[in-house]
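Protein modeling request. Please complete all fields; requests missing the sequence field cannot be processed.
Requester role: graduate student
Desired output: 3D structure, C-alpha cell encoding
Chains: 1
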Amino acid sequence: MKSKNFLYVSILASAVFSSCQQKQKPDPAQADTVAVETGEKVDLPAPFATKSATTFCKVIGWPKGKTPTAPAGYKVSLYAEELNNPRNIYVASNGDVFAALATTEAKALAKAKSALSGKTKSQNMGESPNTIVIFRDTNGDGVVDNKGLFLAGLNQPFGMAAVGRWFYVANTDGLWRYPYTLGDTRITKPGQRVLKLPAGGYNNHWTRNLLVSKDSTKLYITVGSGSNVAEHGIANEARRANILVVNLDGSDEKIYASGLRNPVGVGFQPGTNTIWTAVNERDELGDDLVPDYLTGVKEGGFYGWPYAYFGQHEDPRRKGERTDLVKKTLIPDVPLGSHTASLGLAFYDGDKFGAKYKNAAFIGQHGSWNRSKLVGYKVVAIPFSNGKPGKPEDFLTGFIANAAKNEVYGRPVGVAVAKDGALLVADDSGNKIWRVSAN
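Delivered output (439 residues):
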C-alpha cells in the first residue's frame, strides 16, 4: 500500500508541476499572421490563448468490412492485418514491402500516469515487438501472397533502407546494418552497429528515420527531441532535434539541419535534390499553437526549436535565452495544423494517381492529444505544381469513429508508394496496413 500511495503522490506532483507551467497569461501582442510558401496566411494566436488541454482518443478497432474513406475514383482495401503496431513502411526496388513493428515502451511510473490519463486506450503500449516483417505480391494483383518475419531482436526500429549489400535499420539507440541481397526474405546473420544514437525521447520521439542520398554514399537520419521544449536543459538535447548525415559506415557525422523538434517523415522531392521533412511541433501553448509542418530543408538551416516557433516567434518558456537563434529561424513551407502529429511522408512518384497527385506529398497524421477536440487522424495530400507546394487536402479519412466520444478506429502513421503505384498506409493502433489504389 505504501508503494501505491507513493506512486499516486508522484503522479499528482507531476500534474501540479505541469499545471503551474501552463498558468501563464496570454499576451495579445504576440498573435501574428504569417505568409507561407503555399500562398496561405497562417493565423498564430498568442501563446496560452487557450489552456493546454489533454484529450486522448480511445481506439475501438475496425468493424469487420469497414475501411477508411478515399476520394471518388480510389479504392481502399486491406493490405495486411493482425500486425503488432506497424509504425513505418519501406518499399525496396524489387517491390518487397517491409513494415517496422515497434511501439512506445513506458516505465512503471509512466504506465501508471498513462492509465490515469487515458493514454493507454489511445495507442498500443507495453513491450515493443521490435521486428520487421516482409510482404511480397508475386503476381502484381495488389494482394499479399507471402508474408514473413524478416528481422528480429531490434530495439524500437523505424527507418529502413537497402543500400548495396546492406540492409540498414535505425533503432532508437543506433544505426545498424545487416548483410543483405535484394530479394532476401529473412536476415539471420548478426548485424553491426555503425553509429550510436541518443535513445528514447519525449512521448513518441523514439523514432529514427532514414533517407539514402541521391548518390547512395550517405544516410540522413532524423532524431527527435528528448523533451517538449528543452525543459530538462539544452545539454540533454545533444544531437537531437536534428537531421544528421553520415557516411554509410557511420563515420563523419554532421548536422544537416537543426531546430526541428521531431522530424519523422523524410524524402526527396521528385526531380530535385531537396530534402523535405514532416515535423511535429511543441505542446502546451494552446489548442492552435504550434502548427506541425512540412518543409523543404535547407542545409545548415535552423528551424527554431526550442527557442522559436513557426519563424521568429519566441517561445515564452525560453524567453531571452537565445535571441540570436530566434532571429535566424526559418519559416516552414506548409502548415499542417496544430497537434495533428504529422508523421509519415511519401512523395507520389508513381503513375497511377493521375496528374493531380503526380509528385504530391502524402502525410500520415497520427492525431492529437494536446487539444480540446481531436484533429488529424487522416492522410492529407499536398499537391505540387512547378516545384511549389499547394494547400493540404484530405485524402484518406474515416479514422474517427465518434468525435463526441473521442473514439477512433485506428491511427494512420507511415506511408509509402508501392511498386504498382498504390499508396500503403500503416495504421499502428489498428494493427493494419491499408492499400489505396486508383479505380
